[in-house]
Task: structure prediction
Amino acid sequence: ETIEQTEKRLKQNLMNLKSNHENHKKELQEIIQRLSNSSEVIVDYDTTLGNLNKKYLFFQKARDFILDLLDFLDTKIIEINEILEKNRNVRQRRRRYQKRAISLRICDEFEELGALLAGAQPPKVESEVKKNNESDSESEEEDKNKKNESDVDEFGRDKKYVEKTQRQQRRDERKLRKQKKLNKNGNNNNNN
Result:
């Protein structure tokens, strides 16, 4: 071989080496870029994994809490049903009592109105009845002797007197409730 051929071959090899070197540089740049992207993805996955881990732990605790709650409710369901039934019974008794109180009030007012229309005086207040009882003890004894068995209950009490006192008690209770309600409304109006 001649020097020229050797030189030409060496130049060709040098160019091939330079070309290979450039290709390797490009590949190195691509690898570095991919490595950088992979690092960013790994960091993102780390943060996502931390968040997912927190969510997983939260849902595990929530599941345990719900299971405990279900076990508790399962053991207490009988007591809960009993309490609900008692509450329902109390409300029903309260409604019956309210209906009865309204009915008694209407009857009392009807009797008072009937007495007023008939020209009679309204039933005396309990205190007036006591005063009359003290002053008229002699007439009371005579009245007791004259009373029929139907005017006296099994305990020997005058049925009409008991009805009058009960009526008066109900009337007094209504007045007291009405007064409390008015006082309460008056206090609310003063606060406003």
User: Anything to note?
Assistant: Residues 3-117 form the longest helix (115 residues). The helical segments are 3-117, 126-135, 137-146, 159-191.
